[in-house]
Amino acid sequence: MKPDLTNKADIRIVVDEFYGKIKSDPVVGIFFTKVVAINWEAHLPTMCAFWENVLFYTGEYEGNPLDTHRKIHLQYHTRPEHFNRWLELFDETIDRHYAGPNADKMKYRAKAIATVMQQKM
């Protein structure tokens, strides 16, 4: 049986593996390799803080993901298939390592966030 996500180290496993996959993905990789010049040393800890706050309410994340993604959308139009592929890779990464209420919550919140972003762009 797989463990549930319980701490920052668990989130780091998901974030590191997920972004490792996404960089070379033919559907969404372009956002991370061509559209935006990402400083991975800064981005990965930010994403860990974001998800840690989503799951465990740490208050460590400061930022506005919607504004960030709106700016990206203006550079390269995001479409439903981009969000769907992002979610597919994200869920796949979580499911590879974890199962339980926090794993389910992380996937549910990702879908909710993606839905809101699509509606507001």
TrEMBL record:
Recorded GO MF terms: heme binding; oxygen binding
Chain coiled-coil ranges: none
InterPro entries: Globin-like_sf, Globin/Proto
Name this polypeptide is given: Group III truncated hemoglobin
Species assigned in the record: Chitinophaga eiseniae
